[in-house]
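[Solved] Which block belongs to which protein?

Original post:
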Amino acid sequence: MKIFKAFFALVACMLALHANAALFEDDDARRAILDLRQKIEASQQRTAEELRKANEDSSQLRRGLLDLSNQIESLRSEMAVLRGQNEQLTRGIADVQRSQKDVAQGVEERLRKVEPSKVSMDGREFDAEPAEKQEFETALASLRKGDFANAQTLFTAFMKRYPQSGYKSSSLFWVANAQYALRDYKSAVGNFRMLASADPQHPRAPEALLSMANCQVELKDAKAARKTLEDLVSAYPQSEAASAAKERLAKLR
């Protein structure tokens, strides 16, 4: 009996030790599970926090991109407005330049109508007003057409209107020619003489003396004609008129 009691006691002790060992192992497992759960929860919290921050960053980035897009669109609109304004300004400048050019041309045209300009007549250059030049050319054109009476009237009026004109000597020569054609020899002699006396260096002075002698011949004044021809040869010996004068002097003698 004692042996059985001892055996049962030993078995009970072993069972108790085993129960204690199992209880110890369950505590470790629970603690391990708790630690693992805490780690998992901490990891989940960190992950959630990171996701939250990532979402916030993403939201900020989206807002930033939206703001940038809006700014770009605004800049595009402003550039379009500026391009339109620039085009308008360019057209405005072009219009102003055209207007200024038209005004300048108009002013220049008006000045040309009133300001004297350089002209050349019978080898001489001088200043003449536009109206002065036009009137002289009109008178000369009338003479060339053979309208001698009108030419005489026009040249006479011209010399009265422009007594200091550079065309004066030429006008005297042509009005005298018109009078010669009209057989008004006396008036022609007076104008030819006036040209030769007042402007002896004029290129037509030798011709004026030769024509004056022709008028004197028509007036039957051979003596005056010879004197005029002799003066011509003496004053302008190298001229073509002087050669013609020598031939006529030979006939008059």
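(Second protein starts here: sequence line, then its structure tokens.)
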Amino acid sequence: MKTAVLFSGGKDSCYSAYLARQAGHELVCLISIFSENPYSYMFHTPSIEATKKQAEVMGIPLIIQKTKGEKEEELKDLEKAIESAKEKYNINAVVSGALASNYQKSRIENICKKLNLKSVTPLWHKDEFEYLNELIKKKFKVIITAVAAYPLNEKWLGREIDKKFINEVKELKEKYKIHPAGEGGEFETFVIDCPLFKKGLKIKSFKDFCEGENSFRREVEIK
């Protein structure tokens, strides 16, 4: 099927796109939602501008849709973007990185149903540790760009998901009930390199922001 990918630049959307391609789907465009609200219920916001560079190295057109990020109202902007992808690229399906959030999955499915499109969620209810280990095995280079849960702090920003990271989040799950893949919003990610990229990305500079207790964000600029 011809598919559009709901694309944030993080591990979930990138790996879902990879799995969809491996399953035989044609990735014809990416859709990134640029939200003014950093606490959007639906959309990932850290380093969202850098999705432009990711799209370039993937060689896939990128549709950008801006939204104020107001709860539920932001879904109208998502629908507008998906409808645009359908009209411009004749897509049959939409790929998303939903892992365990019924809130996100159900709303994407409702939009797809309205537009007569199939919703594809390759990661849905995948074991989180199996998933994280697959990222490493498949050579996904993923860094942390935001944290928002105790005891995570600014020292986690820029860390790569590797074996050490997996061991540490396993302990955090046991002690603090933190979701190891960040599905509860505990952390956000950005993909620097993966099999979908023609070449890896290099970070030119970055700026860190403190947004509250145990809440930090990194904005990266790509060369």
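Accepted answer:
You had them paired correctly. Confirming on the second one: Residues 145 and 163 are 18 Å apart (CA to CA).
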